[in-house]
UniProtKB/TrEMBL annotation:
<feature type="signal peptide">
    <location>
        <begin position="1"/>
        <end position="22"/>
    </location>
</feature>
<keyword id="KW-0732">Signal</keyword>
<protein>
    <submittedName>
        <fullName>Uncharacterized protein</fullName>
    </submittedName>
</protein>
Length: 258
């Protein structure tokens, strides 16, 4: 029992200690800076999910952030992602999302890339740190690029969102993110989006999955919501994405929840 409480306290101290920004406002340069050490310090998805459930303020965050996003006209494409890692990155590596047509259907594949790789990528989500924003993940989607270019001139939006996240103690658990994707036109809007992990190629693969299969997964456990759109009534919004536990993460889940 002592070990269990000690481990939980350690996780809480690490991820609920909110950073102090060195400047009052977020600058455009913050929106495009990636740091592999920051990424590697993120919790596993099941750890982050545990912290989120313990916090209990996500509904307040979404409601208040929607009001802010409305002012900037981006509520249909913006939201939050669960700040978590699946892989450890080397110093010169980044996480990049790309669209592919697989034999099973359309997919958004987020995988490890070298910083020097040649694909045209755009920051799509961010992490709050003591030195400002750091990029969480990149995307090659055209809609992400369009909205990112707009936000470059409205960094005050991120500062407003940060203040709300900080007050609700969610700034270290949820990452502000551009969730709209032009590539969603290839997906089935009637089916949930499902994230599965391929450890062999260090990638997470986002696909459509029939509702009945999602419900079966829920019954046996092991599904975590990893994205929340601010405007849930309009597709495309990554608001029902789920992440399947890896074996290691499932052991963490068993330890804390059984």
């Amino acid at each position: 029992m002592f070990r269990k409480n000690y481990l939980y306290l350690s996780v809480v101290i690490l991820f609920f200690s909110s950073p102090s920004f060195s400047t009052e406002f977020i600058v455009p340069e913050d929106l495009k800076t990636f740091n592999s050490s920051t990424y590697n310090a993120l919790p596993l998805s099941v750890e982050a999910d545990y912290l989120l459930k313990q916090n209990g303020n996500i509904t307040k965050l979404l409601d208040e952030s929607l009001a802010i996003a409305n002012k900037y006209g981006i509520e249909e494409y913006f939201g939050f992602r669960l700040a978590h890692r699946h892989h450890d990155l080397s110093e010169n590596e980044v996480m990049v999302e790309q669209f592919e047509n697989l034999s099973t259907g359309p997919a958004l594949i987020t995988s490890v890339k070298k910083e020097t790789s040649t694909e045209e990528r755009t920051p799509a989500s961010w992490l709050y740190t003591s030195s400002g924003l750091k990029v969480f993940e990149y995307s090659t989607d055209p809609q992400v690029k369009e909205l990112y270019n707009k936000l470059m001139f409205n960094t005050s939006f991120f500062e407003e969102i940060r203040q709300v996240s900080l007050r609700l103690q969610l700034d270290q658990i949820l990452a502000p993110a551009i969730l709209g994707r032009q590539h969603f036109q290839h997906f089935n809007a009637e089916q949930p989006l499902y994230e599965q992990i391929n450890a062999g190629i260090y990638a997470s693969i986002l696909i459509n999955k029939p509702v009945e299969e999602i419900e079966k997964e829920k019954m046996i456990g092991g599904l975590i919501q990893t994205s929340w759109g601010l405007s849930s009534h309009k597709f495309p919004i990554l608001c029902v994405t789920h992440c399947r536990y890896s074996d290691a993460e499932y052991r963490f889940h068993e330890y804390y929840h059984n």
